[in-house]
Amino acid sequence: MAPGVVGVFHDDGIYVATAKALAEGKGYRLIDLPGEPPQTKYPFLYPAVLAILWRLWPVFPDNLVLLQGFSLICTSSSIAIAFLYLARFGYFSKAEAASASLIGATSPVVLYFATQTLSEPLFGLLLICGLWCAESAIQRSTQLGRSTSLFYGVTLALPFLARVVAGPVLAVGSLLVLWRKRNVWLLVGTGCCASLWVWWVLRHSVAPVADGDVATYYTVTPYISWWSQRTLNPLRVPAWNTVFLLSSTITVPLPAFAAVASHFVWIVLVGGLATWWLIGKGWVNRTVLVGSLAGYAVLILLWPWPPARFLVPLVPLVVVFLVRGINRASLVYPGLVRTPLLTTALAVAVASNLLVLREDIASTRGSGYPRYPGISDPLQWAHFEELFNWVRQHSSPDDVVASGLDTMLFLYTGRHAVRPLEPRPAALFYGDSGEATGTVEEFVRVLNRYQVRVFVRFPMPGFADEGIDRVLSDTMRKFPGCLSVAYSIPVDSRFAAFAIHRRFCSPAQTTDTLFAAPATLTLLPAEAVDVDPDLDPAVPPSGHRTRHSEE
């Protein structure tokens, strides 16, 4: 855990910002954006819980340890209840359930999410509780009472109020209970609870979002636009997501296999295929667990985003099928060989996780920056704080700033912040033509529309942040004078603040040299030059120095 740090995953900053809005009585709004529009992208349950914790300790960023601690409690609880669920309802033996839970409990990817302000921990806990209620309703020997059915239905719907991807689980569980028990009241409870979020989205989606260039990224609009993005083949997204799903099935619980995948990808793909084949075999019994996993998998295969993150809350429930497959395959060996062999395999799996964890923990403690497993680019949190201080000193509370990590910038500086570059999954992950992170014209239009004073560039490992560097460099070419480097961290020039000179950000200032050669942005250690503070209010007063990169 990195105490006092939030926003490096971007979504974690969104959850904290909306929790802050709820705690301060402003409603479920994006108070980090200009105009503070309603939030309709992520359901409200997780931010609402964070808001309660914020009210208990309203001192930011000190209170982050409480918010992150809640995620850790949810993750540990979900893994424990997953073990009980798998064993209690006769799906697997206690040894198989315990082995899967142990792998989940030591997975560096699972533990990364367990120490961030992200919704996956709460979602995973509520999902398993919902499955438990559905199983209990089906296996009861007597008819369900109305109040019990309504309670089970609400519990089954709660994960939907944390992540909408729980929709298939909600549908499968409630329909199986309706089919086997002929009880409609569980379905009523599920529908009434889920309708709260549906009503909120419909209410705030019928009206256009003000200044939609940025605000729509934080609403349901990007989902609609991502689903409709042009691809050369409509099957491209599910085809690639199938590959991503099979590999992530192994590399999420066992990140050490990511190194194997880079050279022997077939090993990982075969392991993932075997896992889902074993899950599919269980469909003949029409159980809640297998039906829910199947519906969940179908949705994330169609969802235009790599499915690795969606597997994090389900690690014990998915890995246990692979554990059973290995257990049954080992029956060809005599008992004296089989038990030590299985024990050794489990020990190797857990040890590989602990080795990755050891490296991640050392990196996080040394830098103060929460390192994501597999990302070998440790950043110093002190550099982030230095840029926060510079922005606070060289802007007023009414100014609008911009960054790829805009929610982080808002939380630590108190300035409204926008993200002028919207990711486009079709180009980022699925080989579609077009810009992956937006065009220069779109970038400049956002700067002008929101009258942005400063653009702050942070390194963003794992976010393909080279797209930001490309847009910045191309903007300097096409709009000479629009951007200038006002400040950068001397020891790491990837941390930089760019002054925005809006008089030079007009389409009339464009040049024809944009695509003359491939552009890269480099902050050169050139001689510092004074900048006239009258050129633009965003430029620091005389006495501060700036460096401008000429490409």
Describe this structure in words.
The chain has 551 residues and is mainly alpha-helical. The protein has two domains: 11-329, no CATH class; 381-509, no CATH class. It has helices at 11-23, 45-56, 64-88, 94-106, 108-114, 120-139, 146-157, 167-181, 185-205, 212-215, 221-228, 236-251, 257-261, 265-281, 288-302, 308-311, 315-329, 335-367, 381-393, 406-413, 425-429, 440-449, 466-478, and strands spanning 400-403, 416-418, 452-457, 483-489, 492-500. It has a five-stranded mixed sheet with strand order 2-1-3-5-4, sandwiched between helices. α3 (64-88) crosses α5, α6 runs parallel beside α8 (167-181) and α12 (236-251) packs across α15 (288-302).
Write the SSE topology:
Elements: H1 11-23, H2 45-56, H3 64-88, H4 94-106, H5 108-114, H6 120-139, H7 146-157, H8 167-181, H9 185-205, H10 212-215, H11 221-228, H12 236-251, H13 257-261, H14 265-281, H15 288-302, H16 308-311, H17 315-329, H18 335-367, H19 381-393, E1 400-403, H20 406-413, E2 416-418, H21 425-429, H22 440-449, E3 452-457, H23 466-478, E4 483-489, E5 492-500
Parallel strand pairs: 1-2, 1-3
Antiparallel strand pairs: 3-5, 4-5
Short description:
The chain is mainly alpha-helical and 551 residues long. Helix content is 55%, strand content 5%.
Q: Please give the order of strands in the largest beta sheet.
A: 2-1-3-5-4
Distance between the termini: 40 Å
Computed Rg:
25 Å
Strand % is 5-15%
Mean residue pLDDT: 86
Helix content: 55-70%
Described by the principal axes of the CA atoms, the overall outline is globular
Counting DSSP H or I runs of 4 or more residues, the number of helices is 23
Strand-pairing-aware structural class: mainly alpha
Low-confidence stretches: 512-551
Q: Which H/E pattern describes the elements?
A: HHHHHHHHHHHHHHHHHHHEHEHHEHEE
Number of strands: 5
Tell me about the biggest sheet? 5 strands, mixed
**How many separate domains?**
2
